[in-house]
Give the backbone structure.
Amino acid sequence: SVQELEKIFLDKIDQEIKIEPKDWMPDAYRKTLVRQISQHAHSEIVGMLPEGNWIGRAPSLKRKAILLAKVQDEAGHGLYLYSATETLGTTREQTIVDLHSGKAKYSSIFNYPTLTWADIGAVGWLVDGAAILNQVMLCRTSYGPYARAMVRICKEESFHQRQGFDILVALSKGTQEQRDMCQDAINRWWWPSLMMFGPHDSESTNSEQSTKWKIKRMSNDELRQKFVDMIAEQVKVLNMTLPDPHLKWNEQTNHYDFGEINWAEFWNVVKGNGPCNKQRLDARRKAWDEGAWVREAATAYAAKRKARAEK
Ligand code: FAQ
């Protein structure tokens, strides 16, 4: 009976046994995983756009090769995660249709523009830094294919964060103009990076259930605090500052206190009205349309091979 199946499912969650694609699972568990994993996949794919913007303008051959490799990694993460979504019974096409129609979300962070080369450093350091903290927790998520995908993705994200920090280290030791560029990028990316962790726990509609099912292993606010504590120290190495007058070490809590996020801005971006939302979705739709011939050719080729094998 369903009650028995549910009990087996909950026992597995209790005992830290991963849920696998062919196991019975509650519909709502499947649904929230499809939502989260597909949104994660879309974030990786849309996330290629702000950085792709600088591949042709990287300041040296070495920087260009590194950035190219990083952006290709993001494509790999996206494909990995679309595959993980497919194990839950949703096709990749459906997932992508939902992105293009505006039904599915992707991370708010990728709706901000990359205006200078320093932004590529700030994205690597802050955006990948935030992504890693969230994804290290997801290595222990209860759904097997998602957890295993996260292990490899985290290794690559660590390299990404280092490359971002390395760009900023170089700029921070440069001319006054380069140092200003570095500080300006940090100022613009700091608050949007904090928003990546999602709304406060008190406003987080999915958290309670996702925590019970061990999809989420740390809360939005806990991860955000970890991020602030980490970055507040690293920024000192750069001799730069974070744009928050309330940022202050708190001896009682052993954490940094920090100012309030502009939640109106966050929800506005999530709803599709950020600086680059339209541009990002237009770029994805265009890539999908222009890639139609590749999908057709691959399908025709597969059919031909199948027919040949059957002869
Ligand atoms: N942007 O109830 P919660 C990367 C939505 S890293 C947009 O707290 P949940 C690597 C949320 O979906 C970035 N929407 O939701 C990279 C929900 O709406 P829904 C991607 C947001 O799921 C680096 C509503 O608000 N990482 O791509 C955001 O329990 C550099 C209520 O929120 C992941 O996706 C937001 N920031 O917790 C690539 C990690 N925050 O869906 C290229 C996996 C919240 O009910 C370059 N995801 N919302 O309509 C997660 O861990 C979770 O989904 C959270 C949100 C923590 C993001």
The longest strand covers residues 248-250. The chain has a mean pLDDT of 97. The first helix runs from residue 2 to 14.
